[in-house]
Amino acid sequence: MLPRICNTCRSYITASGNEVKGLIKSPLSVPGISGRYAQALYSAGYKKKNLEILEKDFEEINLLMAEVPQIKIIINDKSFKKDDKTIILRKILEKGKFDKLICNLFELLVENNRLSELESIMKSFSRIMSAHRKEVMCTVTTASPLNEKDKKKLTENLKKNLKSGEKLILQTVINSDIIGGLIVEMSDKRLDMSIATRIKEIANSLRTLI
Question: What is the mean pLDDT of residues 16-43?
């Protein structure tokens, strides 16, 4: 029988809503199978107090897959027998000295034919960890780079929308297609104050007058 993480994952996969007992609730609900695996891993990691280690391990696994394409081939190749795939991946993970929970997760994914969900699980786990740190992601799109003064002022205004204890993670994107102004995307909200959108609105208004 596989270790605790496997039972934790199975609980998440077979249960829904508040049916899961004895598990730490994730600070972010992520839909889908990959979300359930990520939330199960979060619960197990929280109990072991090694969430940061798991997050770091996933970052290293991402780098490893980018540097060694053969690992992705092994993960995605369905012609590999489960036992062979488990042995190969176990050796890779043990050599990299990855956390036991990560190793157990890989074994469970092989057992359940879910290795194809790995990258999605890692992304889901990253989102959960961001929520765990009370980080609020905000993307601001402008036609040209903001100067430091404008960026500082914008950041101060955006922080006014945060709840106590939350941290703003600001990402700026340059897109000349918006012509001017800016587009702010924060959590599940979107505020489009671009000149391009304003021109479209004016054009649509003019069409109704003709």
Answer: 82
**DSSP code, position 23:** S
Note the pLDDT tens digit of each residue in 49-70. Answer: 999 999 999 999 999 999 998 8
CA 98/CA 140 separation, integer angstroms: 36
**What average pLDDT does the structure give for the chain?**
88
CA distance 64 to 62: 5
CATH code of 4-131, in short, is 1.10.520.20
Answer for the pair 36, 19: CB distance below 8 angstroms, yes or no: no
Pick the CATH number of 135-209 from 3.40.30, 3.20.20, 3.30.70, 3.60.21: 3.40.30
Please state at what angle helix 100-111 crosses helix 4-14, rounded to 10 degrees. Answer: 50
Taking the C-alpha atoms of residue 170 and residue 168, their distance in angstroms, rounded to an integer, is 6
DSSP 135-202: EEEEEEEESSPPPHHHHHHHHHHHHTTPPTT-EEEEEEEE-GGG-SEEEEEETTEEEEEEHHHHHHHH
Q: Is the pTM of this model over 0.85?
A: no
Q: Report the pLDDT value the prediction gives residue 208, as an integer from 0 to 100.
A: 82
Q: Where in the chain is the domain with CATH 1.10.520.20?
A: 4-131
Place of tokens 């795939």: 85
